[in-house]
């Protein structure tokens, strides 16, 4: 037989309930038996009292007391009453307790065994349980009155054995009621045990405790965010990382996932419960990769499991890597272009056209120097200046001229340099892509100016632009006019990132024209 500690929680609970039920029902049955015994004794005492009063008030009793031999008259009367009332004794006695009658004639003339003083003093309701010549009995002793004077006593009693026989007839009912209660309680306990067995998968308390400890430790240890939703889309569990990534409120548990303050697109996506693999979503300040799978157990749909990965830093690294790659490509292109220009200059000199060689060399140098001077003079953020120079070279390779508007000025400290790179880099990339697909002349223009309260950046291009109806949709995750757009880390997320980066600094971004985007960032006063 297995040890109790090895039993499942359901089995242990059933055994405990069974033991408690048996003990309680045994106590109830005993208490009921004792209560019935007491009730029987009280009822018997009342019955004996009634019979005694009736006999004490009978005229034959008073008349017999005046007879020279009262026993001769009273004994037959008392025996008749005893037999008719199914009592064990009916005794008529003097005030001093000397018997006139008794079921055993040999006891006539002897002293009554029992308490007679209350009745002798005129008390009419005295009863007791006493052991006399016939054994223990429940008896009543009442006075026989003549003109208000006690002239004799009457005692009527029934043996305890007879009272117990009456009680024994009720015991089967008590036992039947107890058995029925036990059966109902056992069935109820079994149903509870069965439900608990299904709920706990027949695991024991130690296993459940160990599982909870591991489960809690894993939830807090994993680096990924974990969100558990029920079938109605309500949040049932969110680990620390999920709360950090989604900025969930403390009372998120039990609320629908689309009602806890998440961005609309993300909340609606999670609330559907559909399977998702590595979808990119934007929160107020993060890029989150979302995967969602249905949760099933035993063929039943329990809800959905959502995993969240923070790709904010990865995206920043990708942006920086693309910038560095752009610089490298720019240097490579410039080196290649410089080699071509050098060969052209040398060839012109060899052909005896020195003046033309000089004009060609200085013209190319002036164009490159003009852009560099405009960038250095107007953009006080080194990272942003380097980005613009690199994008200019990249655009030139693709047949697009990147222009910096006259008077452009971007002061240092207006925003985090990485956010500025994100904003301007994505806008320039989109503009270059659009201009490249447009007919000549192909150009992209960057402008920046400072007002009293803000810095405004504008990026325009010679492309077809964005339709007015799509002005707001353009900033949503996954929207793109480019072929092959997707929800990955590439297409369909650039403008959404621009808006998030601007909002982090209290700024706004808008479509200022069909092919022009404007970003307004408030100045930070020091």
Could you write a compact summary of the structure shown?
It is built from 14 helices and 14 strands.
Beta-strand proportion: 15-25%
Secondary structural class: alpha+beta
Rg, nearest Å: 53 Å
Secondary-structure element order, N to C: HHHEHEEEHHHEEHHEEEHHHEHEEHEE
Fraction of residues in H or I helices: 40-55%
Describe the structure in your own words.
The chain has helices spanning 9-56, 59-65, 70-85, 117-120, 160-168, 171-200, 205-221, 240-246, 264-272, 312-350, 354-378, 382-397, 417-436, 494-504, and strands at 89-93, 126-132, 135-146, 149-159, 225-230, 235-238, 276-282, 287-297, 300-310, 401-404, 443-450, 454-461, 508-513, 516-522. The chain is an alpha+beta fold. It has three domains: 11-168, Beta-Lactamase (2-Layer Sandwich), CATH 3.30.450.20; 222-309, 2-Layer Sandwich (Beta-Lactamase); 314-522, Histidine kinase-like ATPase, C-terminal domain (Heat Shock Protein 90, 2-Layer Sandwich), CATH 3.30.565. The protein has a five-stranded antiparallel β-sheet with strand order 6-5-9-8-7, sandwiched between helices. A five-stranded mixed β-sheet has the order 10-11-12-14-13. It has a four-stranded antiparallel β-sheet with strand order 1-4-3-2. Strand 13 and strand 14 form a beta hairpin. Helix 12 (382-397) runs parallel beside helix 13.
Observed structural traits:
526 residues; alpha+beta; Beta-Lactamase; Heat Shock Protein 90; five-stranded antiparallel sheet; five-stranded mixed sheet; 49% helix; transferase; phosphoprotein; ATP-binding; transmembrane helix; transmembrane
């Amino acid at each position: 037989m297995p040890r109790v500690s090895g039993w499942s929680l359901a089995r242990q609970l059933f055994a405990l309930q069974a033991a408690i039920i048996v003990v309680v029902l045994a106590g109830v049955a005993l208490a009921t038996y004792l209560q019935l015994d007491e009730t029987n004794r009280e009822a018997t005492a009342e019955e004996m009292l009634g019979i005694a009063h009736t006999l004490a008030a009978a005229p034959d009793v008073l008349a017999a007391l005046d007879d020279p031999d009262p026993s001769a008259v009273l004994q037959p009367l008392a025996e008749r009453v005893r037999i008719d009332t199914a009592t064990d004794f009916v005794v008529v006695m003097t005030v001093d307790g000397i018997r006139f009658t008794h079921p055993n004639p040999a006891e006539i003339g002897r002293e009554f065994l029992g308490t007679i003083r209350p009745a002798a003093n005129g008390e009419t309701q005295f009863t007791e349980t006493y052991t006399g010549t016939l054994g223990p009995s429940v008896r009543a002793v009442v006075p026989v009155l003549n003109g208000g004077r006690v002239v004799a006593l009457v005692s009527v009693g029934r043996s305890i054995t007879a009272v117990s026989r009456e009680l024994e007839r009720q015991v089967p009912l008590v036992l039947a009621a107890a058995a029925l209660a036990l059966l109902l309680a056992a069935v109820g306990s079994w149903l509870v045990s069965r439900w608990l067995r299904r709920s706990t998968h027949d695991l024991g308390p130690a296993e459940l405790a160990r599982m909870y400890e591991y489960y809690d430790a894993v939830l807090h240890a994993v680096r990924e965010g974990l969100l558990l939703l029920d079938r109605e889309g309500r949040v049932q569990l969110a680990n620390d990382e999920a709360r950090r990534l989604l900025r969930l409120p403390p009372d998120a548990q039990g609320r629908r996932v689309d009602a806890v303050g998440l961005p609309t697109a993300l909340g609606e996506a999670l609330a559907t419960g559909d399977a998702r693999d590595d979808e990119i979503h934007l929160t107020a300040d993060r890029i989150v990769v979302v995967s969602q799978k249905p949760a099933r157990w035993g063929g039943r749909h329990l809800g959905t499991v959502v995993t969240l990965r923070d790709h904010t830093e990865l995206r920043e690294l990708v942006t920086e890597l693309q910038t560095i790659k752009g610089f490298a490509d720019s240097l490579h292109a410039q080196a290649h272009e410089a080699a071509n220009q050098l060969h052209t200059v040398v060839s012109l000199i060899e052909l005896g056209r020195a003046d033309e060689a000089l004009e060609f060399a200085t013209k190319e140098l002036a164009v490159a120097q003009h852009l560099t001077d405009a960038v250095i003079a107007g953009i006080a953020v080194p990272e942003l200046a380097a980005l613009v120079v690199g994008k200019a070279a990249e655009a030139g390779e693709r047949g697009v001229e990147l222009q910096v508007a006259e008077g452009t000025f971007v002061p240092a400290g207006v925003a985090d340099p990485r956010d500025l790179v994100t904003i301007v880099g994505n806008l320039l990339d989109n503009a270059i892509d659009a201009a490249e697909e447009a007919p000549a002349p192909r150009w992209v223009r960057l402008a920046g100016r400072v007002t009293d309260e803000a810095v405004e950046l504008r990026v325009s291009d010679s492309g077809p632009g964005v339709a007015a109806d799509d002005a707001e949709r353009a900033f949503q995750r996954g929207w793109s006019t480019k072929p092959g757009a997707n929800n990955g880390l590439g297409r369909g997320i650039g403008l959404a990132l621009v808006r998030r980066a601007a909002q982090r600094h209290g700024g706004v971004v808008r479509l200022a024209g069909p092919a022009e985007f404007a970003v307004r960032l408030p100045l930070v006063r020091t």
